[in-house]
Design goal:
Blueprint: E1 2-3, E2 9-10, H1 13-22, E3 30-33, E4 51-54, H2 62-69, H3 77-80, H4 84-90, H5 95-110, H6 114-129, H7 145-150
Parallel strand pairs: 3-4
Antiparallel strand pairs: 1-2
Length: 169
């Protein structure tokens, strides 16, 4: 397996065979491949054949690649359609929290970051469901009260009077 400049994993026939041999019960839904491969000799059942997607080196910049894929988040449909703004506003206790959250949500909306917020909600819910522990917060993300409400970090930026501008520079 190799990784291209965009961080995509590109497989060859040996890579897919190795993945299957390590865990035959593992379901591989899709695989990005250098060239088309006949998997019928590798996978015992045609029920679990992955969809193979031909890799095309498109020679676009990493920024353009990120822009094209910004709205593609792998999460359940209920999170893709989740009203994150309403949920975050419902978590607020008091006028100061509502004001700060509203201001931040406007900035997230202007930057087309609602899909990211939905994904972060899904991530936190999944980590909680599986009892996965994550840190209390670090870097500029702790300046976001919205991220605090979602549960990404445990630093209340209102309590410490942290400006959202420190996060959304």
């Amino acid at each position: 397996m190799r990784t291209d400049i965009y961080g995509q994993s590109i497989f060859n026939e040996n890579d897919l065979c190795d993945l299957y041999m390590r865990d035959p019960t593992r379901t591989i839904k899709q695989a990005l491949v250098e060239k088309q491969i006949d998997l019928s000799d590798i996978f015992l059942s045609s029920d679990n054949l992955p969809e193979l997607i031909q890799y095309v080196d498109s020679k676009i910049s990493v920024a353009e690649f990120d822009s094209r894929n910004q709205d593609t988040w792998h999460m359940p449909i209920e999170y893709q359609n989740f009203d994150i703004a309403k949920w975050v506003l419902d978590q607020c206790k008091g006028e100061a929290e509502l004001q700060r959250t509203g201001d931040e949500l406007l900035q997230f909306h202007d930057r087309n970051m609602f899909p990211l917020l939905r994904y972060l909600k899904y991530l936190v819910d999944t980590m909680r469901k599986h009892n996965i522990i994550w840190g209390v917060g670090r870097g500029s993300s702790v300046a976001s009260f919205v991220l605090f409400l979602i549960g990404i970090h445990r630093i209340n930026s209102l309590h410490y009077d942290l400006s959202i501008d420190e996060f959304l520079k």
